[in-house]
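agent> Task received from the user: take the single chain below, predict its 3D structure, and emit C-alpha cells. No templates, no multimer pairing.
agent> Plan: (1) validate residues, (2) run structure prediction, (3) serialize to C-alpha cells, (4) report one or two observations.
agent> Step 1 OK, no nonstandard residues flagged.
tool_call: predict_structure(input=
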Amino acid sequence: MSAFLPAFDDLIESKFSIGSIEQKIQNKTALQKELGWPVEPKRPMLCLPAGMTEKLGGPLLTEVLPGILSQQMELLVLGKGSSTYGSIFMHLAQEQRYRVHIISESEEDMHRMFAAADMALFLSDPTHMEELEHCLAYGVVPLSPTTPLLEDYNPIQETGNAFVFGTPSKWTAFAAIVRAVETYKFPFDWRTIVRHCMETMFKGERATLRKK
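)
tool_result: status=success, residues=212
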C-alpha cells in the first residue's frame, strides 16, 4: 500500500509538498474532469473521508446536510459505512451528479480524494482516526469537533489548521462550514491554513524520528 505522503504519491495527478502547495489544485481539476463536473478550481470541495455511520455522527449529518447543499460547494463521500447513509448519498449522487460523488474504497481513489479535496467534515471526535492524519498530510482542512491535533483558525493571528467547533450540533457544525467556505474565498488565507495542516504532520513525523 502506498504511504499517504503527497510529495511521493504516484497515485495522484500532481505531487505536492509544503513548498509547492499550488500544485494541489491540479488534483482537484483532474478529478472534476474525470467526473464530468464543471472544471471550477475556485469552487470548494468538501469530503467525508471516513464515510458515515451512527457512531461517526450520522444523525447530526441528516440535520446538517441541507445546510451543506445550500452552499456553493462539491461533495465527495467515501463509500463505506452503514446502508442507511449509503442510501442517502446514492440518492444525492444521482440527483445532483454534477457536485456529489461517492468515492470507492480502492487505494487509488482514496489517495485521489485526499489530494483533490479542500476541506473535510468530521461530526464526531476524530482523535484516533487515521483519516484525520491523511487530511492534514494532504492539506485538506478539517472541520471538526475539538481534538488535540487541531487548532481553530484565527484570521487575526493567522494561526490554526482547522475550523473547530465545540459540542457537535446542527448549528456549531454548520457555522464551521460557513466559516470555511467564506475563508476559502481568500486564497492567501486559505493557503496559510493548508500550510499549517501539512506542517502539523511534518512536525509529528520529525518528533517520531527523534524518539527513535
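agent> Step 4: summary for the user.
The chain has one domain: 6-211.
agent> Done.
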